[in-house]
Amino acid sequence: TDIVPFDYNPEKAKQILTNAGWKDTDNDGVLDKVVNGQKVQMNLEFTYNSGNDERKSTALLLQEDARKVGISINVVAQDWSVYLENLKNHKFDVFFSAWVQAPVPNDHKQIFHSESFNDGSNYTGFGSAASDALIDSIRVELDEPKRAAMNKRFQVMLHNESPYIFLYAPSERIAIHKRFTNAEPSMMRPGYWEAGFTLLK
């Protein structure tokens, strides 16, 4: 709760880009910059898995907002296998993904440890000696208040570096017909264990 979210501020974004040397020198609406002696444009590719309309809609929203500050985004749908392979090989500019957590103490190693860059899911290349050491410590800390404090320190690192833009966490409501007995909720996704249901005759 001590972390102050970044505000939505297109004007500030424009200023940051200008300070980094990105300007629209040819008045075509897209920022450009001379890099290694060649003029390059601020063109990004947003990839998502084909058939996922939610991710496509998000990409199109980002595309429109980015255009307003001079960033061109090409939205590309990819087959699931190609999409995953490109993520694992770090071949992307921007991508949309989702993570599912289990109701057990969180283990950040797979997604955020530098050791997971080639053999895990650290697609963005996040990580430093300090963050790796903190992740390693969290994994073995059994004292819950201490582990909670360490996780909060890690959250601050994630916020400051922003390897991801965390958009939302969906909430769910589960309705079970009264004909079923022993329909107990579960903390594991999807929130119930249907194999345990008993149907009244």
Report on this structure:
- The protein has 201 residues and is an alpha/beta fold.
- The chain contains seven helices and seven strands, in the order H-E-E-E-H-E-H-E-H-H-H-H-E-E.
- It starts with 9 loop residues before the first helix and ends with a strand.
- The model has no long low-confidence stretch (mean pLDDT 93).
Mean pLDDT over all positions: 93
Strand content: 5-15%
How many strands, what sense, and barrel or not for the largest sheet?
A: 3 strands, parallel
Report how far the terminal alpha carbons are from each other. 50 Å
Helical segment tally?
Answer: 7
Shape category: globular
Task: Sum this structure up briefly.
Helices cover 36% and strands 14% of the residues.
Strand and helix map with partners:
Layout: H1 10-19, E1 32-35, E2 38-41, E3 43-49, H2 53-67, E4 72-78, H3 80-88, E5 94-95, H4 109-112, H5 116-119, H6 129-140, H7 144-161, E6 180-181, E7 198-199
Parallel strand pairs: 3-4, 3-5
Antiparallel strand pairs: 1-2, 6-7
Helix pairs in contact: 6-7
